Amino acid sequence: NYTSEEVQKPLTTASVRANGTINSSLFVDGADAGIPAQIIVEMIHMFSYSVDFQREIQPGDAFEVYFDRKYDENGQPVKEGNIAYASLTINGKTLKLWRFQSKDGGWDYFDEKGNSMKKFLMRTPIDGARISSGFGMRMHPILGYTKFHEGVDFAAPKGTPIYAAGDGVIK
Q: In this predicted model, which residue has the larger pLDDT, 107 or 153?
């Protein structure tokens, strides 16, 4: 026979600040600064509408993030919460985003002018990809003649997650 029991333990929430300079990548240097992977992934998603992480990030760029962390009764971290604020400085220009929750419970990230982080399309809808074919005239790979290419093709290893570049669903 098996029995189960639910034990609820109180958790405390505190804000955590982390910052650093990018020497190799936001992911590696963020982890070195003590930022958990899920928070780094959320930061990348937050800024993906404004930043091409494959081509624009350079050594010397900087980052800062404030996020919630939950602790158990012994003071040990047990869960990461939401990002309240994040900034990314690229080539001397600082992008800042704040989390805002509306009265209806919805939320989004906004810049200092109140603009949503979301734009029409993400700059790079796939992590770790290279552009294999750009927008414009190109030799069609199947038809063999020059034809206008109306999109941008990305190449990445099989199984790499793909984001919807705008409103939509990837099938």
A: 107
